[in-house]
Specification:
alpha/beta, Rossmann fold, Hypothetical Protein, Haloacid Dehalogenase-like Hydrolase, Chain: A, domain 2, 2 domains, 15 strands, 29% helix, 27% strand, globular
């Protein structure tokens, strides 16, 4: 028996656990300590599996959530345990987006790859999209466009800000929260308490599902309002503080 048995920590990557390709602070050390004492530690990210596999000093010890909730992936078996692809016709939402002057780039993420598009007709029929990503600048215009798209097409898709200038479109009822719920179901009795940590609107979905949702200090307003508590700035490495709080009985 380990003192962290039953705990599952799911963390966002960029701006929460990592800074680019670098793991922040003492995160790697404390993840190892947590895992060695019975805890399950994984990531819930907009990234694809190959990005997670590239870390040499960190490895999740249970499946990961990728594509911002459109998939659950087993790193050891290198297989998807759950997939939610976009089956709804995305022509209208993309046509609306491309009319905006703030658009800088639009791309599609499939299971393991990504490619740029200039319009809805560029979506490859033989490689179904897990999500659509729109880069729009400045941030104020990205927010305005996100709100417009969500108002018009929110009944068909899940539309949110993944970062200040990044709008993501997933299948309806597909997000980090539904994926973490799916992960918990996969893990079964191994999990008694779920702690989710993040920094952006995309993380609020898993905060709503988690037993405890934690926003890092640098998180956006959406994440801070949705979280149960706020921890240190991501650059300091939040894992130490969360693990210590568990040991003290505060989580």
């Amino acid at each position: 028996m380990g003192k962290f048995d039953g705990y599952l920590i799911c963390t966002d990557l960029d701006g929460t656990f990592t800074n680019g390709h670098d793991i922040c602070g003492e995160n790697a050390e404390y993840v190892k300590y947590f895992q060695e004492n019975g805890g399950l530690f994984t990531v819930s990210t907009g990234r694809l599996p190959n990005h997670i596999e590239a870390f040499s000093d960190f490895a999740p010890n249970c499946p990961v959530v990728t594509h911002n909730g459109a998939a659950v992936y087993d790193m050891q078996e290198k297989m998807f345990l759950y997939k939610s692809i976009i089956t709804e016709d995305a022509s209208e939402v993309l046509d609306c987006a491309f009319k905006s002057d703030c658009i800088r780039k639009v791309w599609i993420n499939t299971a393991l790859n990504g490619y740029d598009i200039k319009g809805a007709n560029d979506i490859k029929k033989d490689d179904p999209p897990f999500k659509i990503v729109i880069c729009a600048e400045p941030a104020e215009e990205a927010l305005k466009l996100k709100n417009e798209l969500a108002e018009k097409f929110g009944d068909k898709f899940c539309i949110f800000l993944a970062w200040r200038t990044g709008i993501e479109i997933l299948a309806r009822d597909t997000n980090k929260g539904t994926a973490v719920a799916r992960l918990r179901s996969i893990l079964g009795d191994k999990v008694k308490k779920v702690i989710c940590v993040g920094d952006s609107e995309s993380d609020t979905f898993m905060f709503d599902y988690a037993d405890i949702g934690i926003a890092v200090e640098n998180a956006d307003e959406y994440a801070k309002k949705s979280a149960d508590r706020i921890t240190v700035n991501f650059t300091k490495g939040f894992v130490k503080y969360v693990v210590e709080d568990i040991e003290k009985g505060n989580l």
